[in-house]
Amino acid sequence: MKTGKEYEDSLRKLNLKVFLFGQRVENIVDDPVIRPSMNAVKLTYDLAHQPEYEDLMTATSHITGKKINRFTHIHQNTTDLVKKSKMGRLLGSLTGCCFQRCVGMDAINALSITTFNIDEKYQTGYYKRFLQYLEYVQEQDLVCDGAMTDPKGDRSLPPSRQPDPDAFLHVIAENDDGIVVRGAKAHQTGAVNSHEIIVMPTIAMREDDKDYAVSFALPADAEGISYIYGRQSCDMRKLEDGMIDRGNQHYGGHEALVVFDDVFVPWDRVFMCREHEFAGELVEHFASYHRQSYACKAGVGDVLIGATQLAADYNGAEKASHVKDKIIEMNHLNETLFCGSLACAGEGGAKPSGTYCVNALLANVSKQNVTRFPYEIARLAQDIAGGLMVTCPSEQDLRNPDTGKWMEKYYKTKTDVPTENRIRILRLIENLTLGTAAVGYLTESMHGAGSPQAQRIMISRLVNMEAKKNVAKKLCGIDQ
Amino acid sequence: MKTGKEYEDSLRKLNLKVFLFGQRVENIVDDPVIRPSMNAVKLTYDLAHQPEYEDLMTATSHITGKKINRFTHIHQNTTDLVKKSKMGRLLGSLTGCCFQRCVGMDAINALSITTFNIDEKYQTGYYKRFLQYLEYVQEQDLVCDGAMTDPKGDRSLPPSRQPDPDAFLHVIAENDDGIVVRGAKAHQTGAVNSHEIIVMPTIAMREDDKDYAVSFALPADAEGISYIYGRQSCDMRKLEDGMIDRGNQHYGGHEALVVFDDVFVPWDRVFMCREHEFAGELVEHFASYHRQSYACKAGVGDVLIGATQLAADYNGAEKASHVKDKIIEMNHLNETLFCGSLACAGEGGAKPSGTYCVNALLANVSKQNVTRFPYEIARLAQDIAGGLMVTCPSEQDLRNPDTGKWMEKYYKTKTDVPTENRIRILRLIENLTLGTAAVGYLTESMHGAGSPQAQRIMISRLVNMEAKKNVAKKLCGIDQ
Amino acid sequence: MKTGKEYEDSLRKLNLKVFLFGQRVENIVDDPVIRPSMNAVKLTYDLAHQPEYEDLMTATSHITGKKINRFTHIHQNTTDLVKKSKMGRLLGSLTGCCFQRCVGMDAINALSITTFNIDEKYQTGYYKRFLQYLEYVQEQDLVCDGAMTDPKGDRSLPPSRQPDPDAFLHVIAENDDGIVVRGAKAHQTGAVNSHEIIVMPTIAMREDDKDYAVSFALPADAEGISYIYGRQSCDMRKLEDGMIDRGNQHYGGHEALVVFDDVFVPWDRVFMCREHEFAGELVEHFASYHRQSYACKAGVGDVLIGATQLAADYNGAEKASHVKDKIIEMNHLNETLFCGSLACAGEGGAKPSGTYCVNALLANVSKQNVTRFPYEIARLAQDIAGGLMVTCPSEQDLRNPDTGKWMEKYYKTKTDVPTENRIRILRLIENLTLGTAAVGYLTESMHGAGSPQAQRIMISRLVNMEAKKNVAKKLCGIDQ
Amino acid sequence: MKTGKEYEDSLRKLNLKVFLFGQRVENIVDDPVIRPSMNAVKLTYDLAHQPEYEDLMTATSHITGKKINRFTHIHQNTTDLVKKSKMGRLLGSLTGCCFQRCVGMDAINALSITTFNIDEKYQTGYYKRFLQYLEYVQEQDLVCDGAMTDPKGDRSLPPSRQPDPDAFLHVIAENDDGIVVRGAKAHQTGAVNSHEIIVMPTIAMREDDKDYAVSFALPADAEGISYIYGRQSCDMRKLEDGMIDRGNQHYGGHEALVVFDDVFVPWDRVFMCREHEFAGELVEHFASYHRQSYACKAGVGDVLIGATQLAADYNGAEKASHVKDKIIEMNHLNETLFCGSLACAGEGGAKPSGTYCVNALLANVSKQNVTRFPYEIARLAQDIAGGLMVTCPSEQDLRNPDTGKWMEKYYKTKTDVPTENRIRILRLIENLTLGTAAVGYLTESMHGAGSPQAQRIMISRLVNMEAKKNVAKKLCGIDQ
Known about the structure:
Four copies of one chain form a homotetramer.
Chain A: H1 4-13, E1 18-20, E2 23-25, H2 35-46, H3 54-57, E3 58-60, E4 67-69, H4 78-95, H5 102-122, H6 126-140, E5 144-147, E6 170-174, E7 178-189, E8 196-199, E9 214-219, E10 225-229, E11 255-266, E12 270-273, H7 279-293, H8 296-315, H9 321-346, E13 349-350, E14 356-357, H10 360-370, H11 373-385, H12 388-391, H13 395-399, H14 401-410, H15 419-433, H16 436-447, H17 452-462, H18 465-476
Helix pairs in contact in A: 1-2, 4-8, 4-9, 5-6, 5-7, 7-10, 8-9, 8-11, 8-15, 9-10, 9-11, 10-17, 11-15, 15-16
């Protein structure tokens, strides 16, 4: 298993084509806008070497029997699934942001199921190929971007009937060595911190769309791949002097548009090619896993709750009954989220390949709550934090003696609370509810792993309404 | 294990002193008001003999190694705890009401922990006594009423300072053979269908209150015990001709006030006597277990969701997008409840006696949601059901040819839906949202196993706020 | 203006054909099940004679210039509309139930607009006829049932294509003297306490449905009209000995199915006959007025809030911060409802006939909140009331010395609170949240004046989305 | 009345001491960070000259009888109050932000009541002085900052017992010419765009605090006053090239810390000086008026709803039933807010000075909803907008041909929707839900005019609980 330092070094050796604010970025690892997101991924390496986190952060490879980072592991039982949920919460609670590495874990687990299933039907060799690739990922301890979301163009049309045929990523050529693909993947979390990009289709496909039913893995710096870095609320604060106003001093997340401009993929990296009837199941498995992954938001919630309690302490409001009650409510909602992540894991089961997958109904239910509760937790945090969170002058004003003296004097609350600490904690709450981390804690909670309506459709499909209706009939005396 | 028939027969042999509507009830088993609640308990016996339910409904005694009804089992691992949650949902989903038997199960599990702990400190013999009693319960397959809630009198005063010393049940005399107790237990679910009453204290006690720190078990028909049966919304419908208007034709629940008028308890049935410092932990363990038990409400929710879907089908509204969306929301909330029950079970752990107890934080979180979501599910059910649920004339009007012809004609919707079936399903929804079952599905969900504020206090005690504050400080750069 | 006594006497002179629990009711005024609903209507007469209520309860007829009961008034300005909202809240706050008389008021106001508009187009004489009829209603101070809701049969079909042509009320014959109608009106609030039935169509109609586009008024005891009385949760308690268990000792509401079995209507009582294109506007005006009328629920909310505060006082919980906060929330929601009723009235405007009508958008918004907030207020009331509300034995048990002594002893809280008073207030809360009054406070709040989805459709039609879109475009720099 | 141009010119003549990002700002009018907030105030001048807005934007001075800008008007009747609510919504709906001028209007109205009342008790001459000052404000058509919120220091201590005596603004010296004050006002909306600062105390005061009971007006550039400009989420985007990423191209709001460093106030500008018992009423009147003023948020809601509908249109999702339903919900909540603003205005009444004040209970209820609904509206907006709102690269990337071509291609939806327009509308939604405008739409909605708990306390004080309890007792038969 790599250390964090080794991970950082390995990134430096990649030659990614990244654009940010209209410029090509030469050194992505040290870029001040990108760096915090790299730090968050790096922590997934460092913690795996700490004994107190070993149980959650590592696992035993079912291929090699070696100890591996859990992010590269195929879940072998429900205990693995539960540990995945707990690992997510742990990392969220230590970083206060999206640490980006779960998409790759969810991609390899989903592929381990579907490549096996395709082989069963067509006697293809995808599963064996996939296991070879997986062993490489485990041995090298790589970060993989699980890339699913296509731009989708006109949402009323299937891939093959789009005005622009590239609205969904597809195979445009094929030869003995491999295939050539064109298209893009949008909203790619952590893409720029990844060694590998694992591409999957984004929706169920029909016969007509079969060129779009394609899955493969490539090095992140393969020829023809470009990254355009997404901007976030308050991203420019990372370019300012001073650290306070960025809120979270250490960690962040990012998303990028990843463009595949006629990229070649050798056959040994291809895991699905035109088996369109398997696109849907791959999407559903990935989605179920990834909906479970939002356990991390309970961890980010821990940070926001802690920050809010500190803001109350610093304001001298910590004993007010309404403040205590609101913090209870924040914790209640946050733990309800965690219950969902645990329950869908505990109710998971084995697929034909032996991979354990979460209970899909409960994973969808869990994610649906993630589209709601963080917003209410954030609202309550803003309630307790008070208005200074959005009216406080900048750190430069605090540092300027002419204005800093007034800020020190007039933002003082209790005598034993340094004014600067009060400002620091308010900036962290701002970061989580309006700033760069709000992107992950709120909007990504809404849309990541599928927007709310996607989960609602799945819930309606997965509940057994006939059984419920039959009991109702019986109880009220309707003959059946 | 007894069959349902054997259970019913065993009840007939008891000589309970039960009052209902101002009268002593001679035959409680066949009384039309009480009968449906007995039927619900009876089902817990019958299902244990059906192979498809065996895994959930039975367990292996850790004392005798024999197969026993799970309701008499001491949880040996988290799998047992998870099965308990699933058994609760199953029974709720088959009866559409409170089946009453979980209070006894929760009482014996809590006592198995606390009697052991008292012995550890005082070298008393409670645990051994308790196991002997438990073996009797398992062998005879008995229903136990776990009786905790005291009347409590003036809520601002402790037991020993109440104007009426009997506001909390207490020991009033003691001799070589046993103790004499006086007091009452209020809101006792299923008391009248029980073979045994297991009494526990209701709050943490101080030295002054030690006469109130008492736990014991007695046959339900012991000398000096009286039951006054609580009335429920729409209870009189069970005395009317016709079955439709009662909604649920088969099952119900009940609560009673149980009075202990100077009742003698032999020492071998006493499990705590004046060890006041253990009262609090017994209450907390029982409360945690019992908060988990509200998994049953997800089962009752299944019935209400099924009935609501049928009402939509019968009204011809089942394809309206807003109807579909509301049913999804009902399912979503219902499954969120289930997630809580599963999660607190899965995160349970062993106590010194070896008994497994649920995760207390998550059990409180789960119950807190139970005080909310059933109300919203019921509101949505009423939305979809339509106003006829509360304006429909009586079954007698349907049977009277002069009026029945108009009801048949004007309450007709689709040609293939018998009007009577439409009325039946609406009466079931009325039963669950306003009638006898609403008592269990709504108000008992609010107050059973502790009112909402009790859970909120526990949540605030059980979360680790210091850990959350420390990470927040670290992330925003506050020196610690 | 009649006194309450005169109103009651006038009802005795009617010969209504009413069925209840499978029997014809001979004396509707003194029937114990029906009586409380008559009492509530009666109060609308008595209050009009009390000076402190005169401003709200009376108005000056725009026809005769005489002082009349406001329930028979045509709104002449926005002040009238605002007073109507306040009158509704007043009556709800004094009765704790539905007082039933607003449907007639809303019907005459809607007809005053539409009969005028039909005349404008077709030079019919409906408006003049209507004013003559109105003068009779004002002079005699009559209660009118505004009867709109048809049974509707298969909801996917229009009136003229129903399998049963009577699923919507319609004209089946016509001669020089008048018309003959057949059909029914369901869920008719207060029908059995009315002197007159004013029939209106229930939906917009097309040419094919023109026989269904009919509006008229008839004496409530006209030949061929039958009433089948709807049953309510806990209605049988009104037949028991004792008064406590019914909760509200004085007032109630009711709904009935009103059947028109080939009923003759003379031309001078016909206000619309086959002018199908006006059916929709009549429905919309009535619906807007009637959605405003739910101001009464803020009044019922006042009663429930008062009862809940008393329950807290009697339980000794009135100083707990969570109790105070919940009562604030109940008041907040209740006053938010009132704001809606006031706002739609204040923003009303004149129609061509001179009648003032409420702002339709805000009336729909207001009613939409009525479909939600009473449920939450009721939930909070149950939270504060405690479980005894649903587990308390019957009044007969309280009166029986053998059991009454225990109830007195064990349901005692503070020494200065009579146990019976505690039970009385809990029974009132039960009445409002589960019992006969819950029908009006909850389910009727949901469906009366149109179910929630009906309001949502109106909201979507009435907001000016183009204006909102244009400003958004302008602000973000999109050329238009 | 000034034009917008004249207003801008008048600001240029002021010599305000403003600090921003650690620097003194030389030209506040043209500073790119400040400018949008000036534009919003400027619109309040320009609209007053447009005939279609004249009715809402202007009024007739009760002092001079001249036409004046309504922002300088003393409300003379409930119609004035209702027009104030409508003016607020209008301006919010045209600017999509806080236009800052209501604080001054609310301050002069509150002072017109309290100066009159002080005079009544003490025969002081404050009211006359105030009217002279008001006439000057009306004649010159000035923007006034109504400055109430003190820093407050340790919230558990009153002003006179604070460790730092300046934690509340107070009189430190007095002579024949006037008084000298020291302290600060925090979170001052629009301070830097104001001609005048009107200071008021922030809480009710006791005898000991009388030096803190002070109210006065000063020119904004009076000697000794400094402004430290508060930073907002995404404020730096106003310094970037390109306009798209700022979302709202034209308007914004701001808050500042205003420091009074021993500032002299001549007696003719002093409106309260040590009459401590009137501090509370001044605060309450200002608070009630200002809680009404949040009508503006319904206007900002209009912009967000329009933007969200456009995002749905551009995404091709406008016909999805869940999208339509969510937009209905946004409108429903937004109009519910408006109902509150209208209702508290319509129910207003005259104070002894003749000034009309809103109904305080309903104003608090209305504001309480403002602390909730905008958050839910924003959440729904983010739901419909989709994830691109937070993952879209910068405008610079769009302008760079190497990356812009990919953005054009892959962010394309419908063929007739320019990709740039789609990005523009998403940036506007980002602005309103996470960016500079979120400060006003969300956090200021929470805390402006008092945090939620302040309103809850007022609601509990203003409802008539005794009346509610008495009716409840009567209805359930409790003797009184």
